[in-house]
Amino acid sequence: MTETTENNTGCEPPSPQQHITFLLRKYKLVEGLVNLQDLQDQSHTVSSVQKQNLAELQNYLNQLHPADIAHILEALPLEDRLLIWSLVKAEHDGDVLLETSDAVRATLITDMGNQELVAATEYLDTDEIADLAPDLPQNVIADVFRSLPVEEREQLRAAMSYPEDSVGALMDFDVITIREDVRLEVVLRYLRRLEELPDHTDQLFVVDRNEQLKGVLLINRLLVSDPETLVADVMTAEIIKLHPGDVAQQAANAFERYDLVSASVVDDTDKLLGRVTVNTVIDFIRDKAENEALNLAGLSEEEDIFAPVLKSVKNRWGWLAINLVTAFIASRVIGLFEDSIEKLVALAALMPIVAGIGGNSGNQTITMIVRALALEQINTGSAWKLLVKEVGVSLVNGLMWGTIIGAFTFAIYQNAELGLIMTMAMVLNLLLAAILGVLIPLTLRKLGRDPALGSSVMITAVTDSGGFFIFLGLATIFLL
Known about the structure:
The chain is mostly helical. Helix content is about 70%, strand content about 5%.
């Protein structure tokens, strides 16, 4: 077998994940032969092959970006994941841990000793250590604090003091500051003495002797301007100033709106504290989107796809229990109309249509509202206008699709009254879905909860029970 056959196409090179899987399979194949056969006479040869396979795996891993290694680890079962993790260079451990999901990171940290964890933080900036801190044991955090210089220790303490969803939690302390009364030629000489510029440096921050922000010097202006020019003559005022206590979503919105690469973070006196960079904002947006997708499905936290059964059950059982209760309520609603269904069996075939369309419409409304809340497009004054607008949309959709379904009902059952009831039920259930689709996320936000948390589950439950009650109730009143 070759790598080409492993890829099947013979044209495209295998992805890092495919290549690692191929090398891992080679290693495990020899290991399996050792367990199945008596290879005592060939033990030296087998040992050499095993070492060679492990060395090949390690060499390939050393060439990969930490993000690629993290992606590979997330796609492997626990046993294979820990084997690959043991081959990762120590200096890459911290970067890989930062790139993995919280659930997978927990399995990797559990496999590491305290000294390994402390060593992994040596290659990280203080803001990156702060990102890892919630997942590290307390005694490891204490050791990390002791290992840092005084200045970085204070930076780490400050970073850990900010809430997880604040700008302070996204803040990077690695900034380049300059004074406004120096020439550009001096700035260029200063930059050349540095080993490298901080990542995503598109501007230098101009401060006074008290570290108060006066403006920014864009890198492109620095490169094209006369070296004899003073910084004060070419610097620009910082348009976007973030504060550490701001909600992180506000920073994300600013980066999207103004196409920022970096932005300053200042305190109430305009003293420069640090900066936020676009890569951190992208990570925040991605994590938030993933969490919202999980919350809509009623999952409380990110789940390792290879997690133990009991752990996965624990993550999923809460909203399943709520679903069971709502399903029981829906069944009792149907039970109230058992006599009606016995007299007109067509009701049993038609009522899932009303509930299903209502649930779909409600989920559309909730998805739009949750997104608008995340982008801060809804305030107290606009909420009622939005509710009226959604009611109007549902009324039009209900009349249009209700008429179509009513016509099909009449064509199938030759019963005009039943077709009219289908139309009425569709309109009423879509109106119910629209109203609750707006009110559920707004209420959750008002209560200080994530507006996406279980919204999809709740709206489906309401439109199911409501749809059954509306349709069967109308049929009982007008047909029986």
